[in-house]
Every structure is written in C-alpha cells, then in structure tokens.
Amino acid sequence: DQQVKQNSPSLSVQEGRISILNCDYTNSMFDYFLWYKKYPAEGPTFLISISSIKDKNEDGRFTVFLNKSAKHLSLHIVPSQPGDSAVYFCAATLRSNDYKLSFGAGTTVTVRA
Amino acid sequence: GAGVSQSPSNKVTEKGKDVELRCDPISGHTALYWYRQSLGQGLEFLIYFQGNSAPDKSGLPSDRFSAERTGGSVSTLTIQRTQQEDSAVYLCASSLAIGQGVQQYFGPGTRLTVT
Question: What is the DSSP string of B70-107?
C-alpha cells in the first residue's frame, strides 16, 4: 500500500530553467512532507520540508508547494544547475507514527548544460 | 562533524548465509531508523528505535530480520538465511527525539547482494 507516489520516474531540464517535481499522497493525516536528494552511492540528504498547516515553503532556489485538498505537493527548483542532477524523493510522515518516513519511488532529474 | 556511518559499504553473500549490517548514528540522536531500497523502488521502513523504548518492528518483512541497538547508540541489523530478494541498499537514519525535529539524517547505506 504505497501512500506516497511520484509518477514521473525521470525529468530532463535545461540549465537555468525551472524543474518541477510532483508528488501525490493518499493519507490526509500526514503532518509533514519532506524532499530528499540522493546522489549515487550516497545516502539521501534533506532538502526542504513543509508542515501540513502551510501551503508554501521557500529556501533559496527550492520551493515546496502543498495542496492539501488535492493531496499533492510539488518541488520547484529555479534556476536548475548541473549539480542538481540527482534522484529526488518525496516523503511524508506522521508524528503519531513516530515520524517514520513514507517515501515515493523517486524522480531522476538530469540538468542539461 | 561526524554524520551517520554504516559498514560495510558493500556486502556480497551467498544465499542462506547470515549477514550483519552496522550503523553508527549521529552523537546525541536518540531516534534511529532502518530503511531499505530495492532496485527501482523508494525507501521502505524496516525498524525504529527511540531511546530505551521497545523498538517498532512493524516494517520488518520476515522473522529472518532482526535488529538491536546497544547502549542507545550503535545499531546492528541482522538478516538470517539470506534470500535473493533481500538484495537491496540498507539505509540507516538518525534524528533528534520526537518533538525536536522531523528531519532524519541518512548514512551512505550498505549495498547487499545475495547470490
């Protein structure tokens, strides 16, 4: 029972343009949503998070938008840079579930020069 | 500053053998999680430790899997009688106590290959 879904396995974007990654979830009780970035042979690193009581959180080039009615969130990266090429995982968590993370399958982003 | 470390980084084992995977969390982090990532899949929760409380084993796929955390720090994940479907990257993460942050810090993982 996959509660977090990333339906686009890959995304290719030109350097300098915007990257938009999408994520859908089924459990309306999730408290927090997080995005992680993963390079090959490394563990995931935290990028940005958003509480379920907010609809937007911004940190530098990264902005996460949450649409609770649609159970949808997105990550915007602007401008995209070659170092952004990685796998991006969407995750969701519940305080009542000890903050165990439920992950999507990931989206591989390739930034073209 | 030391992050989460895991050993070994790679492990190749024959079907039926037992393996032990080790995780050293960030000092001061009381919460420790094990996940695994099978090929083409997202990360799947396995087990969770919080301080001295009994671990949450709800994600363990079978009774061949077990884990312990000694002294509230280092954790060992043991897989007995390994099967080919156990091949995956096993990731450990640690975090501050609940109520002090939701962010989990991941180690580099152990890539397990069962032949």
Answer: GGGS-EEEEE-S--GGG-EEEEEEEEPPTTS----EE-
Q: How far apart are CA A97 and CA B15, in angstroms?
A: 34
Separation in Å, CA of B82 to nearest CA in chain A: 22
Burial of A59 (0-12, 13-18, 19+ CB in 10 A): exposed
Choose from B37, B53, B96 for mutation: most chain A CBs within 10 A: B37
Residue-wise pLDDT for A15-44, tens only, equals 999 999 999 999 999 999 999 999 998 999
Give the total residue count for chain B: 115
Q: Does A43 touch chain B (CB under 8 A)?
A: yes
Q: Report helix, strand or coil for B30.
A: coil
Chain-wide mean pLDDT for chain B? 92
Is the predicted pLDDT of residue A69 greater than 60, yes or no? yes
Within an 8 Å CB–CB cutoff, is residue A47 touching chain B?
no
The whole-number pLDDT of residue B40 equals: 79
Quote the CA–CA distance of A22 and A71 in Å, as a whole number: 11
Query: Helix (H, G, I), strand (E, B), or coil: what is residue B17?
Result: coil
- Give the Cα separation of B26 and B10 in Å (integer): 21
> Looking at residue B21, what is its pLDDT?
98
**Residue whose entry in the numeric block shows the structure tokens 């080790």:** B22
